Amino acid sequence: MGIGKSKIDSCPLSLSWGKSHSVDTSQGHYESASKNSEDISLCDVAERGKTTEEPPGEQEGAEGEAETPEEDDEEEEVFLKFVILHADDDTDEALRVQNVLQNDFGIKPGIIFAEMPCGRQHLQNLDDAVNGSAWTILLLTENFLRDTWCNFQFYTSLMNSVNRRHKYNSVIPCGSPFALQTINALEEESRGFPTQVERIFQESVYKTQQTIWKETRNVAQRQFIA
């Protein structure tokens, strides 16, 4: 559910949204030094003075801690504030709208559809984008309205908001035609644009959808394991 940037078919982002270090104990050097104590040089003494020998248990613990950052890379997926669905030729405009919402109004995190992971089917990415975000913004340009795939995204998003109670009013047209003025819409040229943003992107709505999203994912994971 998307949301650098390129067209949908060549999305560059791999969303996520350390490296382990081994511990050199140099025990072989210590053993040979102890067996040949008579041959120990000043350099050997200095070398041993700089190195602190750790018990095996502590060494294993250090290695485990060093691997922690690598494990942190596998973070849980983030439930997004919004995703912008757009035509291929409107990627730059989608990025501009994304920056306005995130930088000017603090509505983050959000993505555009071109940022969805590569290597997956478009339908899977669309499902993840729509259901993995609180609001779906439709960038309704001429390019969008005459594109078959974009029309499919349009109707799929609307039906999703109708069939799922917690998704009601979650589809937000941007630059919408007159026929869509009766529902929530973003009109950037309007004086009331800041008020529209404040009214639509309510934190309480986001929290509610985030909770349902997490519960749905947990159920799906338990079913998969079973």
Automatic annotation (TrEMBL):
<dbReference type="GO" id="GO:0005769">
    <property type="term" value="C:early endosome"/>
</dbReference>
<dbReference type="GO" id="GO:0071651">
    <property type="term" value="P:positive regulation of chemokine (C-C motif) ligand 5 production"/>
</dbReference>
<dbReference type="InterPro" id="IPR035897">
    <property type="entry name" value="Toll_tir_struct_dom_sf"/>
</dbReference>
<keyword id="KW-0597">Phosphoprotein</keyword>
<dbReference type="GO" id="GO:0006954">
    <property type="term" value="P:inflammatory response"/>
</dbReference>
<keyword id="KW-0966">Cell projection</keyword>
<keyword id="KW-0399">Innate immunity</keyword>
<dbReference type="GO" id="GO:0005770">
    <property type="term" value="C:late endosome"/>
</dbReference>
<dbReference type="GO" id="GO:2000494">
    <property type="term" value="P:positive regulation of interleukin-18-mediated signaling pathway"/>
</dbReference>
<keyword id="KW-0449">Lipoprotein</keyword>
<dbReference type="Pfam" id="PF13676">
    <property type="entry name" value="TIR_2"/>
</dbReference>
<comment type="function">
    <text>Functions as a sorting adapter in different signaling pathways to facilitate downstream signaling leading to type I interferon induction. In TLR4 signaling, physically bridges TLR4 and TICAM1 and functionally transmits signal to TICAM1 in early endosomes after endocytosis of TLR4. In TLR2 signaling, physically bridges TLR2 and MYD88 and is required for the TLR2-dependent movement of MYD88 to endosomes following ligand engagement. Involved in IL-18 signaling and is proposed to function as a sorting adapter for MYD88 in IL-18 signaling during adaptive immune response.</text>
</comment>
<feature type="domain" description="TIR">
    <location>
        <begin position="74"/>
        <end position="220"/>
    </location>
</feature>
<dbReference type="GO" id="GO:0035666">
    <property type="term" value="P:TRIF-dependent toll-like receptor signaling pathway"/>
</dbReference>
<comment type="subunit">
    <text>Homodimer. Interacts with TLR4, TICAM1, IRF3 and IRF7 in response to LPS. Interacts with IL1R1, IL1RAP, IRAK2, IRAK3 and TRAF6. Interacts with protein kinase-inactive mutants of IRAK1 and IRAK4. Isoform 1 interacts with isoform 2; the interaction occurs in late endosomes and disrupts the interaction between isoform 1 and TICAM1. Interacts with MYD88; the interaction decreases after IL-18 stimulation in a time-dependent manner. Interacts with IL18R1 and IL18RAP. Interacts with TLR2. Interacts with RAB11FIP2.</text>
</comment>
<keyword id="KW-0519">Myristate</keyword>
<keyword id="KW-0967">Endosome</keyword>
<feature type="compositionally biased region" description="Polar residues">
    <location>
        <begin position="17"/>
        <end position="35"/>
    </location>
</feature>
<keyword id="KW-0391">Immunity</keyword>
<keyword id="KW-0256">Endoplasmic reticulum</keyword>
<keyword id="KW-0395">Inflammatory response</keyword>
<keyword id="KW-1003">Cell membrane</keyword>
<keyword id="KW-0333">Golgi apparatus</keyword>
<dbReference type="GO" id="GO:0032481">
    <property type="term" value="P:positive regulation of type I interferon production"/>
</dbReference>
<dbReference type="GO" id="GO:0005783">
    <property type="term" value="C:endoplasmic reticulum"/>
</dbReference>
<dbReference type="GO" id="GO:0005794">
    <property type="term" value="C:Golgi apparatus"/>
</dbReference>
<protein>
    <recommendedName>
        <fullName>TIR domain-containing adapter molecule 2</fullName>
    </recommendedName>
</protein>
<dbReference type="GO" id="GO:0035591">
    <property type="term" value="F:signaling adaptor activity"/>
</dbReference>
<keyword id="KW-0472">Membrane</keyword>
<keyword id="KW-0963">Cytoplasm</keyword>
<dbReference type="GO" id="GO:0006909">
    <property type="term" value="P:phagocytosis"/>
</dbReference>
<feature type="region of interest" description="Disordered">
    <location>
        <begin position="1"/>
        <end position="73"/>
    </location>
</feature>
<dbReference type="GO" id="GO:0001891">
    <property type="term" value="C:phagocytic cup"/>
</dbReference>
<dbReference type="InterPro" id="IPR046946">
    <property type="entry name" value="TCAM1/2"/>
</dbReference>
<feature type="compositionally biased region" description="Acidic residues">
    <location>
        <begin position="55"/>
        <end position="73"/>
    </location>
</feature>
<dbReference type="InterPro" id="IPR000157">
    <property type="entry name" value="TIR_dom"/>
</dbReference>
<dbReference type="GO" id="GO:0045087">
    <property type="term" value="P:innate immune response"/>
</dbReference>
<dbReference type="GO" id="GO:0043123">
    <property type="term" value="P:positive regulation of canonical NF-kappaB signal transduction"/>
</dbReference>
